[in-house]
DNA sequence: TATTGTTATACTCTATAACTATA
DNA sequence: TATAGTTATAGAGTATAACAATA
C-alpha cells in the first residue's frame, strides 16, 4: 500500500520525485538522516581541525588511556592500517602520544596530552550544542526509542555473524 | 550522568572499551547501525551485481520514468558528475536507457529496460528479506517512530540551511 | 608461529572546476 | 548568459596483502 501523495520529495528548485519505494526501507531513512547529521558534525568539528574519525579516536583515547591501536581499531570498527593515518594526524598536532610499553614492545599505549584533553572538551561541547539544535524537535522518549533500535540492529548483526 | 557499567562494548576477542561518551551522541548510534545495515545491503545486492548507489538509481529511474540526470542527482543528493559513472554502469548492463529528448537536446530521459525492471523486482525482494531479518526484533510501532525521527532530522536540516 | 604496527595499494564515495553542446 | 551532461581530478573512507619487530 503506497501513500498517494505523502511520500514525495520536493527539492528546492526541482520537480517532485517519487521516493516511495526507497522510503519503505529503514536503511534508506537511516542513511539520509545520518548524512545530515554527519554534515552538521563536520561543521561543528571544522573550527577544531578535526574530522569525524579523528574526533572519535580522540574521544576513545581520552576515555580509555593506555589502550592499544588494535584495541582502538576494534572499538572503532576500522581496519588497523586505516587507523595509522588517523593517529598520525592526532600525534602530529601533539593531541595524543604513542607511548612504548616495556612489557610488550610491539604495542603502543595511546594517551591524550593536556592539549588533546582540552581540545576534546571544547570540541565535545560544540558537538553537543550542534546535535541538540539538530534534534530540537525530537523529544527525549523518541530519542531513547531510536537509540534502543540502533543498538538492537547492531546486536542482531553481531548474532547473525556467529 | 554516566551509567557505571552499561555503556561498555565487549568486542568478541578484545577487552572492554568505554564508549559512553560516544554513545551519548545519537549521530554515533546512527552511524554504527547504518554501517551494519549497509554491510547487510551490500551482501543482499552482491548476487545481482549492484551496489547501494546503483541500486538506488535503478529504483528511482524505475519509479520515475523519464526523469533527467540532474533531477536524479538532486533526488539522490549526489553531485551530477558522480552520477555519470553510476549510470554508465547501469547502461552498460542494459538495465537503463539514456533517451534523447527532442524538445531539449541537452537532457536525457532516463528509463529502465525490461531487464532493468526484472532486476529491480528481484533485487528489491532480496533487499526486503534481508532488512526484515535484520529488523526482526524491532516492532512496527518502534520502526515508525524511528522513521519519523529520521524525517524530522532531514527536515530540520532543510530549515536550518535557509 | 602469532601479534602489533606499518607500508603499499586499490576501490568506493564524494566534491569542485572546467569543458561541450545545447538553449 | 544559463543549463545538462561530461571529464578530470582530488580528497576521504575502507579493505586486503605483505613486511619488520617482537612475543
UniProtKB/TrEMBL annotation, chains A, B:
Gene3D superfamilies: Winged helix-like DNA-binding domain superfamily/Winged helix DNA-binding domain (1.10.10.10). Keywords: DNA-binding, Transcription, Transcription regulation. Residues 23-155 form the HTH marR-type domain. InterPro entries: HTH_MarR-typ, WH-like_DNA-bd_sf, WH_DNA-bd_sf. The keyword Transferase does not apply. Pfam families: MarR. This is Transcriptional regulator. It comes from Sulfitobacter pacificus.
Amino acid at each position: 500500500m503506497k501513500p498517494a501523495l505523502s511520500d514525495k520529495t520536493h527539492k528546492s528548485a526541482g520537480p517532485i520525485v517519487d521516493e516511495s519505494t526507497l522510503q519503505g526501507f529503514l536503511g534508506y531513512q537511516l542513511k539520509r538522516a545520518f548524512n545530515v547529521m554527519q554534515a552538521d558534525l563536520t561543521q561543528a568539528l571544522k573550527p577544531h581541525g578535526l574530522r569525524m574519525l579523528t574526533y572519535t579516536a580522540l574521544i576513545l583515547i581520552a576515555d580509555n588511556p593506555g589502550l592499544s591501536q588494535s584495541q582502538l581499531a576494534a572499538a572503532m570498527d576500522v581496519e588497523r592500517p586505516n587507523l595509522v593515518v588517523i593517529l598520525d594526524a592526532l600525534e602530529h598536532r601533539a593531541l595524543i602520544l604513542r607511548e612504548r610499553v616495556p612489557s610488550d614492545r610491539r604495542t603502543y599505549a595511546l594517551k591524550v596530552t593536556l592539549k588533546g584533553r582540552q581540545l576534546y572538551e571544547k570540541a565535545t561541547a560544540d558537538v553537543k550544542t550542534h546535535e541538540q539544535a539538530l534534534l530540537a524537535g525530537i523529544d527525549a522518549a523518541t530519542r531513547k526509542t531510536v537509540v534502543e533500535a540502533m543498538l538492537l540492529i547492531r546486536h542482531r548483526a553481531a548474532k547473525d555473524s556467529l
